[in-house]
């Protein structure tokens, strides 16, 4: 059984004024992956000064981790008001260039999720390098709509279309989809030019676009005191399901179940 991989910058997050804590796609994906009993690799990056705060909690999740040192660590302030989330980007993480990729460690990986925190994290040439040898790339839509600047997070659709050229699966949150295409209808999603797209709708499930058709996939209620990282957990679980042979709609149901378990505390 070949491993899947998740690659991206870690972050330090302050939730509702609390203490700084580890975050970012690799961390939240690892929380899901440890419960799925499938070989996986995490490739994570951050600044040396923050390594002692971020790396031990990630390693403790039990997934093999490769660490890449960067000049800065992404930092976010996040506040929740019910289902509404307000974010301030206080620092951006470093970009990933083709020469930064651990090619040997990823040699057997055929399914890989790329988890950007901003539009500057993964340029098109890096995605092209990752997609070599027929590797299937899942990409988080944060890399399309989050501008490469600090300050209050305001999504925008000004992205380089080359970013999607080598993407096999595009994962979008509902607000990201609306910024990119307006109402995420079948025709609107088709125009993005990616063969497989999943739009997560929180407690309303997801929209799965595959084989030219879009289908709504409902889910059980997703409840929990802190939904931070739910999208990353969904993306990792979806990737595992697809790599294991499930159809896109079945993979979405599977991923929703994993997220529901994490949010409820049934999966820790």
Protein architecture, described:
The chain has 268 residues and is an alpha/beta fold. Helices cover 27% and strands 28% of the residues. The chain has eight helices and 14 strands. A nine-stranded mixed sheet has the order 5-4-1-8-9-11-12-13-14. Helix 1 crosses helix 7 and helix 7 (230-243) packs across helix 8 (248-264). The protein is globular and about 45 Å long. The model has no long low-confidence stretch (mean pLDDT 93).
Task: Give a short summary of the structure.
The chain is 27% helix and 28% strand. The chain has 268 residues and is α/β, with parallel strands linked by helices. Strands 5-4-1-8-9-11-12-13-14 form a 9-stranded mixed β-sheet. It has a 5-stranded mixed β-sheet with strand order 3-2-6-7-10.
